[in-house]
């Protein structure tokens, strides 16, 4: 394991800031320094300023918050399950949250967004709990069995969700939650993600406990840690964060799998030391993918879910082959 100099963390933060500034000026509408500071007759705010404040700035903040939160959720879930190939979209967590969102749209369509997120969180928590219960009954002869179980569970939940959605004419909404997309993010439609930022802060405060819990029940108990309570706290954080992101912008696949694995190559398994890097790299990767999606077929754009699906699946395969190569 290699170590990174302390100065690299501020440099990485500056890099994320530069990506964020770039994100503010990428898009169809003309938002440039000339358009922003050219002035308008009568002092009324011009179109460029409105686009910046109402669309571009909220979108950029949403990208940073969602990327950091989902990457940290992946790290936390990997610690709790003790498997490097697990994240919310390979453990049934995200699919369960989408099921909750669909049921709210079907049974209580007037429910406010926070209520929707609460129901989605409960469903995500139940789905993750079911995933863990199944793992206890399955002989885990290979680390790859764990994500396969999660993917199969997610497939069953997705099939059930889409069947109900098809019968109730909600399939378009479900497709929107399954594919992450930030193009509809506006001022007043992303603020739920600040809750995910707060939950990420809670995860950092309890990072040492999660690290110990990741060593196993016996080790945690011998060190005076209530393993069950720490597991419950971690699952609540993962479920609420996943639900908040899906309710705001949809699912971002593979992010929570790729980023923690890359960071662990240079930072190891200590969660307190790794978490800031995971959050920064998650935010940076989502920003970079979103900017690329806006530039590849400009003036149209590719949804972030598609971009992350392509890049994330390729990196996932690389990690699998790399692990098998070392095992051989």
Automatic annotation (TrEMBL):
Keywords: Cell membrane, Membrane, Transmembrane, Transmembrane helix, Transport. The keyword Membrane applies. It is a multi-pass membrane protein. Coiled coil: none annotated. It is found in: Cell membrane. InterPro entries: ABC_BtuC-like, ABC_transptr_permease_BtuC. The chain crosses the membrane at residues 12-37, 57-77, 114-135, 144-166, 186-207, 230-255, 275-297, 304-321. Belongs to the binding-protein-dependent transport system permease family. FecCD subfamily. PANTHER family: FERRIC ENTEROBACTIN TRANSPORT SYSTEM PERMEASE PROTEIN, PETROBACTIN IMPORT SYSTEM PERMEASE PROTEIN YCLN. This is ABC transporter permease. It comes from Azospirillum argentinense.
């Amino acid at each position: 394991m290699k170590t990174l100099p302390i100065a690299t963390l501020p440099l990485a933060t500056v890099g994320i800031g530069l990506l964020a500034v770039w994100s503010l000026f990428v898009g169809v509408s003309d938002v440039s320094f000339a358009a922003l500071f050219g002035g308008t007759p009568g002092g009324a705010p011009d179109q460029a300023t409105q686009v910046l404040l109402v669309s571009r700035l909220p979108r950029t903040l949403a990208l940073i918050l969602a990327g950091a939160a989902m990457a940290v959720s992946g790290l936390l879930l990997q610690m709790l399950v003790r498997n490097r190939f697990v994240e919310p979209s390979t453990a049934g967590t995200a699919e369960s949250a989408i099921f909750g969102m669909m049921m709210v749209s079907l049974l209580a369509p007037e429910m406010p967004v926070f209520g929707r997120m609460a129901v989605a969180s409960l469903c995500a928590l139940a789905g993750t709990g079911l995933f863990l219960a199944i793992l206890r009954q399955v002989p885990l002869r290979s680390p790859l069995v764990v994500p396969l179980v999660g993917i199969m569970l997610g497939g069953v939940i997705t099939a059930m969700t889409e069947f109900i959605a098809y019968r109730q004419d909600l399939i378009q909404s479900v497709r929107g939650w399954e594919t992450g997309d930030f193009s509809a993010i506006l001022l007043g439609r992303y603020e739920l993600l600040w809750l995910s930022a707060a939950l990420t802060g809670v995860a950092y405060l309890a990072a040492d406990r999660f690290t110990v819990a990741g060593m196993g029940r016996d080790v945690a108990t011998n060190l005076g840690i209530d393993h069950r309570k720490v597991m419950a706290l971690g699952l609540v954080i993962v479920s609420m964060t996943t639900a908040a992101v899906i309710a705001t912008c949809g699912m971002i696949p593979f992010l929570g799998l790729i980023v923690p694995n890359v960071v662990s190559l240079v930072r190891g398994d200590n969660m307190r030391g790794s978490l800031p890097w995971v959050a920064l790299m998650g935010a940076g990767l989502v920003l970079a993918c979103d900017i690329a999606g806006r530039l590849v077929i400009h003036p149209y754009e590719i949804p972030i879910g598609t971009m992350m699906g392509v890049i994330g699946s390729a990196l996932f395969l690389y990690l699998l082959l790399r692990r098998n190569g070392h095992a051989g």
